[in-house]
Amino acid sequence: MIAELLSRLNPKATTLQPVPSGVGYLNGHDIANALGKIDVPVGAVNLVRLKWAMQENYTQDVHVSLYAHVMSERFRKIHGHRPGLVFDLCRLAVSEFCQPTVCLSCGGRKQFLSENLLIKCDACKGTGIGRVSKSSRARAVGVERMTWSRYWDREYLQILSVLDGWNGTVLGELKSRIYGS
After folding, report:
1. What residues contact residue 41 under an 8 Å CB cut-off, 6+ apart?
2. Alpha-carbon span 21 to 57, nearest angstrom
3. pLDDT digit string (tens) for 35-88?
């Protein structure tokens, strides 16, 4: 629900319909003000603006913030990779995190109706989000499939977990800022 409120930051997404939470009186300025008062990394706030409010002008800032975070945390000890690979991993992770693909098996519905039974989709594990293959990730950053599996897949999942952590932290802080809990 907090994510729905974030959509009010984008004038293209503004609606006159109240959010079904009783906070229909909040506008984009209120949400932006609450975001500005949250004590989290700037990259995390910009990620939320990019993902939930579709403010694409924050894309480069998120890439750079994530790259700086990743290089300070994980990759400074790894040698032998091509220049720019870690930044490419960050760009791919931001793209995948902010614009997940719809599951091709269930069409994003998370479940199937079969003989009057609701069955959770096995392909997406009930998330509605399509899984991206290791091969397609490797191709996207210009790495051989074996090299990806051996060295970069685990690191890439760590980068995605940073984004997930940032998203959860900002949404939690925003919720407590708006609702006071």
Report:
1. 65, 69, 166
2. 29
3. 888 888 889 999 988 888 888 899 999 999 999 999 887 665 555 578 889 999
Tell me the C-alpha to C-alpha distance, in Å, between residue 134 and each of 2, 140, 159. 32, 10, 15
Q: Does the structure show a pLDDT above 60 at 105?
A: yes
CA end-to-end distance (rounded Å), the chain: 15
Longest dimension (CA), the chain: 55
CA distance 16 to 46: 25
Q: Are the CB atoms for 116 and 110 separated by under 8 Å? A: no
C-alpha 36/C-alpha 170 separation (Å) is: 11
Helices (H), the chain: 2-6, 28-36, 42-52, 59-73, 85-98, 134-141, 145-147, 153-179
SS3 120: strand
Closest CA to 43 of 78, 77, 10, 73: 73
